[in-house]
Design goal:
By secondary structure, this protein is an alpha/beta fold. It has a single domain, classed as Spore Coat Polysaccharide Biosynthesis Protein SpsA, Chain A (Alpha-Beta Complex). Helices cover about 30% and strands about 20% of the residues. The chain is built from 6 helices and 7 strands. It has helices at about 30-40, 70-80, 100-110, 140-145, 150-160, 180-185; strands spanning about 5-10, 45-50, 60-65, 90-95, 115-120, 125-135, 160-165. The chain has a 7-stranded mixed beta sheet, sandwiched between helices. A hairpin with a 2-residue loop joins strand 5 (about 115-120) and strand 6. Helix 2 crosses helix 4. The model has no long low-confidence stretch (mean pLDDT about 95).
Length: about 190
């Protein structure tokens, strides 16, 4: 995956957690964002973090949202508008600490050339924030933003999307609530 780019999405409101998930201490790191960044950095040519601003206490390149709204779709459009020479990238949510490089490798290995999005799928459903997005999806994403439609799920429905199934749904546990965070820290 040497030539691949990974973007960790860390710009959410964290309303259910009641504090910024990306900045929660995790493992031996000061923040979940740093944990995710350091975990994946060795496997990609470049790792960025997408957020509203650079709120991190470690050295990382941040792609800031170029729109006022807050949503993963805003992040996706901002990323492609910032990285104009990148045609394909991995997107991963900051709050999914159990996803490992093997998951992302499988997405890459099974990707079909004609698919605009290659997304992880499990018994729990599809994971729009564990996926490969291609620039060919950008015009559709921009149209959705213009119509104030922010659900990534909708984008997946209107472009050529390939699902890659994973039998271990525990990989995709994310931390939305304080109890989820406490559970994740035990592993």
């Amino acid at each position: 995956m040497d030539n691949s780019v990974l973007i960790i999405i860390a710009g959410g409101k964290s309303s259910r957690m009641k504090r910024d998930k990306a900045l929660l201490p995790f493992g031996d790191y000061n923040s979940l964002a740093e944990y995710q960044y350091k975990k994946f950095q060795p496997f990609f040519s470049k790792v960025y973090i997408s957020a509203k601003n650079n709120k991190f206490d470690f050295s990382v390149e941040v792609i800031e949202d170029v729109y006022n709204d807050s949503s993963p779709l805003v992040a996706l459009v901002s990323i492609f508008e910032t990285l104009t020479k990148i045609d394909e990238l991995f997107i991963l949510s900051v709050d999914a600490p159990f996803i490992d490089v093997e998951v992302l490798k499988k997405l890459k290995e099974e990707a079909k050339k004609e698919s605009a999005i290659i997304v992880a799928d499990s018994k729990n459903g599809i994971e729009p924030l564990c996926a490969i997005y291609k620039r060919t999806a950008l015009p559709f994403a921009k149209q959705m933003l213009q119509k104030n439609r922010h659900r990534l799920q909708t984008l997946l429905e209107i472009v050529s999307t390939q699902k890659v199934f994973f039998s271990d749904e525990k990989l995709f546990l994310n931390m939305n609530y304080p109890a989820d965070y406490e559970f994740a820290q035990r592993f």
